Amino acid sequence: MNSGTLVGSLIFAAVLVVVIAVLIQLMMRGWRRRAERQAELIGNLPQMPAEVGAATSTIRGAYLGCTLSPAWNDRVTAGDLGYRSKAVLTRYPEGILLERSHANPIWIPQESIAAVRTERRMAGKVGARNGILAIRWRLPSGAEIDTGFRAGNRDEYYDVLRAGSPGPQQRKEGAA
């Protein structure tokens, strides 16, 4: 290889590295700006009550993230809601608790739940036929989001789906 070709190759490699670094920086800035815009919309998440009844079911799996309803691909990035992690979903008569690895737990009160269903896709994740458990619920701020969870064994969804009927407030609204 002559020196002209070597110098040209090194310059091309350096330009390529700079372009990739700039693209990554732009993506990170976009993620942060999206989180800032959504912070007001999302507001504060509900706190788990001091006392809850006995757990009706517990499922180990993965927390996939939250999306703004009804768009299955509009990921929520505010706080730590946009990060996937291992999780344990526990169903109580008062609501659903998602305990996530390296992230804050998410408490979904029963009266906030609009629907519990299975989906094929959510926020960049496409699963096997109806492999994702999607919980649609209303935040205290009034925004409605879907929270995605994927269990290792999809047969475990039955208890959560059966108990996932909307709270009394949503039943009245839906009946009208």
From TrEMBL:
Residue intervals of the PH domain: 42-163
Keyword vocabulary terms for this entry: Membrane, Transmembrane, Transmembrane helix
InterPro entries with a match to the protein in the record: PH_bac
Transmembrane segments: 6-28
Pfam families, per the entry: bPH_11
Protein name in UniProt: Transporter
Source organism of the structure: Mycobacterium servetii
Lineage: Bacteria, Bacillati, Actinomycetota, Actinomycetes, Mycobacteriales
